[in-house]
Amino acid sequence: MSQSLVPASSITILAHEEATRFVDMAKLYNNDVAKATAIAYIQRTGLNPLANEVCIYQGKLYPMVDGLRHLALRSGVFDGSDRPQFLTASEREAEGYLPDDIVCRLTLYRKGISRGFVGTGKANRDHPANKSAVEPEYAPRMAENRAFRHAWRQAFQDLLTEYVVDIPPDEIDEVLESRAQSS
User: Fold this and answer.
1) Within 10 A of 111 (CB to CB), how many other CB atoms are there?
2) DSSP labels for 92-109?
3) Burial class of 130 by CB neighbour count within 10 A (0 to 12, 13 to 18, 19+)
4) Which of 58, 80, 172, 175 would you label with 144, given CA atoms 20 to 30 Å apart?
């Protein structure tokens, strides 16, 4: 039996069912090994794809902002955050941002560390040459999510490396056997 990073419980069984449903619905994997790898990753992390905690992007699984929050909370070392602060036009200008940039700063705290980890995120409403151009109504949320990800990577890098691992072949085999038995 392989070691899981989440306790084996009814939650893990539910995660397997949700992971299977998510991977089957996504229709991005055309072979059973790739599907089994995705299911094993979702089971291993305990992240729920149906709650927007993990997604498939360009054929790879990525924890979303909600998933990163979930991992931080579950770790027991997350010690809160400040409210997101959006820079004013004069602050953006002083720091060299474009006039149309939406810039957000967010500070996360980790237990046992006295200083916070500050993340900065930006999104641009209108500038077509800017890779961070988004729909105007989503720009503030996008800037906030980017600030959160930036701060999270600084504060909880050890958690990220714990969950971004190669899935051992025996876990993939277990998922393949389980899928074969349920067919």
Assistant:
1) 10
2) HHHTT--TTEEEEEEEEE
3) middle
4) 58
Are 139 and 101 contacting, i.e. CB atoms less than 8 angstroms apart? no
Token output for 16 = 């397997």
Angle at 157 between CA 69 and CA 98, to 5 degrees: 75
Euclidean distance between CA atoms 133 and 139, whole angstroms? 8
**90 φ, ψ to 5°?**
-70, -35
Please report the sign of the dihedral spanned by the C-alpha atoms of residue 87, residue 91, residue 96, residue 98. Answer: positive
* CB 154 within 8 Å of CB 119: yes
Helix extents (H) in the chain: 10-26, 32-45, 65-75, 89-94, 139-155, 157-163, 169-182
- 160 HSE (CA, 13 A, CB side): 16
* Structure-block tokens of residue 165: 């691992």
- 182 vs 84: CA distance, rounded Å: 46
Q: Is 76 exposed, middle or buried (0-12, 13-18, 19+ CB in 10 A)?
A: exposed
pLDDT in tens, 77-106: 889 899 999 999 999 999 999 888 899 999
pTM score of the predicted model: 0.68
Q: How far apart, in Å, are the Cα atoms of 33 and each of 3, 127, 182?
A: 19, 42, 16
